[in-house]
Amino acid sequence: MNKLDNNIWLQEPTLQNLLKILEEEGHEARVIGGAVRNALLEVPIDDIDIATTRTPDNTILHLKKHKIRAIPTGIDHGTITAILDERSFEITTLRADVNHDGRHATVVFSTDWLQDAKRRDFTINAISVDRKGGLYDPEKGLEDIETRHIRFIGDPDQRIHEDYLRILRFFRIYAHYGDGQPDRDALKACARNHEYINQLSSERIWSETKKLLSANHITQVLNWMRVSKVLTTIIPESEKWGISAIPHLMACEAAYQWRAEPFMRLMAIIPPQLERITSLIKRLKLSNKEADRLHKWVHIQGLPIEHDTNQLAKTLYHNDQQAILDYYRLERVRMLNAGYPDEEKTKGLELAINFIQTWEKPQLPVSGKDLINAGFEAGETLGKALKNIENHWIENEFKPSKEELLNLL
To answer: What is the pLDDT of residues 25-51, one digit of tens each?
Structure first.
């Protein structure tokens, strides 16, 4: 048995205490999955998942005996969440699948670690570690960690038919942690089964897609997704539009320190056409905030790209700032994608983007109440006067003071 070298996180007192408690009465408990994988790959660890030989009911009762809060977050599948020292840990009983339909599984609880490992998705996610740092690797995941090779456990088709979301998970894990050519058997299985993705809920598809699009290395992954027809299945709006903008968007993220934003990457691979945007919003059930951002981005298409900051400020005042920023950034990406040679226009666009990012919308210093105090009565005349004042203020670069504007009356 190997030992985990990078185990400072494992020796953290809260986690050690929880593992010791779960091991009482002759039971076993180990950290498994993403935390172990990330520790071995020397990348940041997010959530810590624990597997145990205890049944869910026994886990809850035992934790309560130690005054640890236990929440039955997924008790039908053996998962509870323990809250200890203001931290949360998912604890799942070892399991075996009895039945599955590609979306949901019926499980029985077990004490067999090998049986539990074989029902997991990828070899690198089946490695577990006990509280002393001992590694358990029943599916040779350590070899795949070494080469960053993402491989299904056992038969890829069987793993996929247990949960169709594993098609997207394969590409997501590959994008975040893989290297080199994707596993041939896995890729072929994803291509054979791509149509089953449509049986998943929109929420699961969109959630997994966002995680995939947040990866640092998605250019080749999107190409493989296109080849296997997976990309067209989840985002048919990208068909015949291309994904060639993605490497240029990522180059801009690095050069200009733009935040790597999954939603912006989505926008880069879909056309700004209302019909396609409406289709995507409806099918993936995007949130109102996400849908609003896409609609505003579409509706400003064709707006002249302005480099003069005074004119740009006027454009920003009358339009949504985020939509303008999305539009200008993707225009910069488009210029890179097209190999645009005009350095002067390129520099102008870069300066414009910096201006948009830091611009704060000014507040008109005159209100309707000020006009009423000046003798106006509420109504149409007051509205027109206020609009005229605002137009004058905008045309004069938002500089006139309240006193100067009132003097116009």
So the answer is: 999 999 999 999 999 999 999 899 999
Phi–psi pair at 238, nearest 5 degrees: -85, -10
Sort strands 128-129 and 135-136 into parallel, antiparallel or unpaired: antiparallel
Pair (84, 197) in one structural domain = no
What is the rounded CA–CA span in Å between residue 345 and residue 352?
A: 10
Residue with tokens 């609609």: 295
Residues 92 and 128 in one domain: yes
- In 111-188 the beta strands, taken as DSSP E runs, fall at 128-129, 135-136
Same domain, 83 and 177: no
Name the pTM for this structure.
0.89
Query: Is residue 152 domain-resident?
Result: no
Residues 225 and 332 in one domain: no
Q: CA 305, 310, 313, 317 torsion: positive or negative? A: negative
Give residue-wise pLDDT tens across range 93-106.
998 876 665 566 67
Q: Which domain holds residue 300?
A: 241-359
Structure tokens at 99: 């039945």
Q: Tokens 């498994």, residue?
A: 32
Q: Which amino acid is at 139?
A: E
For residues 112 and 178, state if they share a domain.
no
Q: How far apart are CA 348 and CA 74, in angstroms?
A: 54
CA dist list (Å): 238 to 172, 226, 266, 284 = 18, 10, 9, 14
* Mean pLDDT rounded to a whole number for the chain: 92
Residues in a beta bridge with 93: 52
Tokens of 349: 């666009």
